[in-house]
Amino acid sequence: MYQASPKQLGQRIKMRREQVGLSTSALARRLGVQRDTLAAWEIGSSEPRANKLQMLAGVLGTNVSWLLEGDAGCGPNPQPTNDTAALREQLGQARDLAQNLSNMLESIQHRIDLLEKDKSTHS
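^ that's the sequence the OP posted. Answer follows.
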C-alpha cells in the first residue's frame, strides 16, 4: 500500500533512517559527518551538499529524487529485512574498525620514521 512521503527533505531522511534501523550516530559515521550535522538536516535547519545527498541515498537504500522530491514513483527500495539491517550495521562497524586500524598504522609508521631520523642525526 502507498504511504505518503513526508513533505520536507529532513523528514524523509529521518523516516528512511528509522526504516532501515540506523541511529543518527551510525548514519552520521557512515556519511563522514558530525551527528549534529545530520540532526540539522533532519530538522530542516540545513541541507546536505550534493555529494552527501548521493551518499545518503545509497546508505538509505533510496535515490536522490525521492529524498529531494518525495515522489511516489521514486520511493525507497523495499525495506530490508532485519538480517539485512543487522548486516549493514556490522559492515559499518567493520569499516570503522578498518579506518581506525589504518590510522593507527600510519601513526606507528610516522613514529618509527621520526625515531629513525632522530637516530641518524645523532649518529
